[in-house]
Fold these 2 entries.
Entry 1:
Amino acid sequence: MFRLDAAFVRTSHPIAELRLCAVRLQDDARWPWLVLAPRLEGAREIEDLAPDDRARLMQEIVLAGAGVRAVGAVLGLAVDKLNVGLLGNVTPQLHAHVVGRRDGDPAWPGPAWGFGAPEPYRQPALARALAAAADALRG
Amino acid sequence: MFRLDAAFVRTSHPIAELRLCAVRLQDDARWPWLVLAPRLEGAREIEDLAPDDRARLMQEIVLAGAGVRAVGAVLGLAVDKLNVGLLGNVTPQLHAHVVGRRDGDPAWPGPAWGFGAPEPYRQPALARALAAAADALRG
């Protein structure tokens, strides 16, 4: 049975359940940042997915890009470039990060993953970001 | 007309032309590391690709994972985890990095992208790595 790794529960907030992935908002208001986790027990690498699910993961990553832009609008942060990363060195359960980057952001042009300390959302920004992302994910 | 960005020409060696992507070996022997660039003029984000090409990019990323494992075998470096990244903050032409990571590698568990200074290949390791990767990409 699939269970989302506790690390994601701790560091992110649920937005939506797409056909393949649980989609969550990374609890770090420095960047508009979504995390997608395919609901497939034991998957660690993309190659662990069936070909159809690989294509679906890519489509859901693209959809998450729209969610990231919507969260960026809520935060008042420009999105000059989307960054997509599937790492899993710390939390091996297969997941994809989709992060909205801007020229001059705290880690620019380096990767955002693992950079500095997260800045958790406060209300009402969190509720607004979750609502905007959910809206964008409805496509 | 598609032209590979000069940054890739400078920092990597050609391995193969897949149906969508030019596949190259990153000239950094610290990690087995392949770079894929879809041969589509003007593409910067995954969303710029037609749905079929998005699925194909994902399949070619998976294939590149096999290439990375083959290069890891040549270098004598274990591949505990594949890392896939589409960033483009420095070189916006759409491209994907597929990097073989190992517990305890120089940047572990952080991202390899932008970490420290590359260690260019020497011969005969370069020729062996290119041949092994090309072989693995034939599937």
Entry 2:
Amino acid sequence: MTPSSPSAARFLDACFGRAVDRPPVWMMRQAGRYLPEYREVRRDVSFLHLCRSPDLAAEVSLQPFRRFQPDGVIFFSDILVPIAAMGAKVEFGDAGPHLPEPLRSASDVVRLQRFDPSEAVAFTGEILRTIAREVGGRAAVLGFCGAPWTLASYLVEGGGSRSFAVIKEMAARDPQTLERLLSLLADVAADVLSYQIASGAQAVQLFDTWAGELDAEEYRRWALPAVSRAIAGIRRGPAGAPVIVYINGCGHLVEAMAESGADVLSIDWRLPLSVARRRAPRLALQGNLDPAHLLGTPERVAQRTAAMLAETGGEAHVANLGHGILPGSRLECVTAFFDAVRAPARIGAGAIPA
Amino acid sequence: MTPSSPSAARFLDACFGRAVDRPPVWMMRQAGRYLPEYREVRRDVSFLHLCRSPDLAAEVSLQPFRRFQPDGVIFFSDILVPIAAMGAKVEFGDAGPHLPEPLRSASDVVRLQRFDPSEAVAFTGEILRTIAREVGGRAAVLGFCGAPWTLASYLVEGGGSRSFAVIKEMAARDPQTLERLLSLLADVAADVLSYQIASGAQAVQLFDTWAGELDAEEYRRWALPAVSRAIAGIRRGPAGAPVIVYINGCGHLVEAMAESGADVLSIDWRLPLSVARRRAPRLALQGNLDPAHLLGTPERVAQRTAAMLAETGGEAHVANLGHGILPGSRLECVTAFFDAVRAPARIGAGAIPA
């Protein structure tokens, strides 16, 4: 898994804070509905079927690679795939995922099982091996998993939530059950990510999307120990696959996130990266263009992307969006985003000699 | 409207940063479903009917006052009431408000009208006059309105949203339409709040709940000028009704919020008030207990409320939640919250002489 080409090496070097020619770049949820070729595949198959079909899932993972040549290629899947493998019922509808039997008590936790990813989700390994073969070092292959707090939120709330009232009530009134659940999910995340690394993932991202709902004290009590346990549990090989942690709305949590053991903090669009850098000076950063800009104009995307790069000077920075790309994103804006990272000289006054 | 009792005076003094015996306290959305007496009233009438019935609306506004004696009594209404008065169709369902004909173009804006609150929403004035009479200075009477960005989000998105993709796309691709809409909404908010103040409101709050989705640059471009215009437009009488501005997820916006002309910044639960104070040292603060704590235990509520008060030392601080109270909140936790603000000596080691 040693990177054999500039792109994969650039990605890994940036994650570890080593010098690079320019920041690597990819987009969260880059295999998705904004791409006509993705919608074409999805016309004939359900979301879950797509996740579980290695050839199709590898194909949609590679679609953005062929179109935009990002420096990272994430495999197509869903953060609830491991939840389903644990034995929870998961339904994917148009309004997002729904868990018809939400977890509410200790006995519900007991019914969930840790599993061997090479058996229960062998299709994910197959997708990653196919991508690694096709990409051939021209980009880093990326694995991912939901972080324990975010997976627990889905399980306990039964889907998305505005207030996270049910899991917060459990935290206050039945802490043992929530602790048991988070420990189990941390072990599952470690198992899943270790298997992904063994299957070809060169870096992995833990999505703790919803941990930003917690204040720093509650984050340190619940989400942080669980994500730290997951990271510690990853069998990090000699190549040391870097671990990226993402939280949406992480502005109040940067210092705490930095204690998770992650190599890279993935920052949402609201926190300037220069502020994140000051508060977590020893770690690489990922992010953080507001994905909504990709609904706008290429000119503005170029401008805001250049401003984002100026926040870090391009050092120890994996250029990305601050959240997943939105379905209505315009292809010319996506191109402008990649171009702005790859050819900053073309932006603004770059043609004027210094 | 000069405050004639300690409670109303305490509220206004804290808003202006004057010395108080203890911080005043109330709760956002304190007239609501967590109260059995509210559910009793709501059993027989629809939400909209309740908003428009002065006697019933005054009654539910006073319910939390009778039970908990907060220092502020906010009148019962909904932030979409002015939107409906402008001529937009608004439906209130169990899943939140829905606007079946979302605003998408300049011609949609033209169809919305500024209105005279003393005619179109005269019921709000009647509610406020009733409350002012009943409360008789034993608490400050509070008015409120949605801030322009948040009202525009409802109008353009057609209801709640996760990504705010439609309004952000409008900002990028049709800025003139959005500017016109925000100006109109700023004038409407000023009209509405001026009428509320004339009807007995002693302080008013602008809810810019969703402005936290914007990064600081976009906030300064869109939401801040509009809320500033609304505040400047309020006919602030000799008593100078203080203006409170609330944003959910305001951590990255405190400095900008402080430039709005508001007297009080209402901070969500994620940002420690000591940090907010450092970043906006000249303004009073409101907040900021995580409302989810009221689903938990009274002991923990007392502990976290004491910690919140320690963040400001009780100076220039209106104690409140960091967001609206949740429907499943426990009455014993609400009592613990009010008690912890009113009688801090009873908490922890307060009985030990200094």
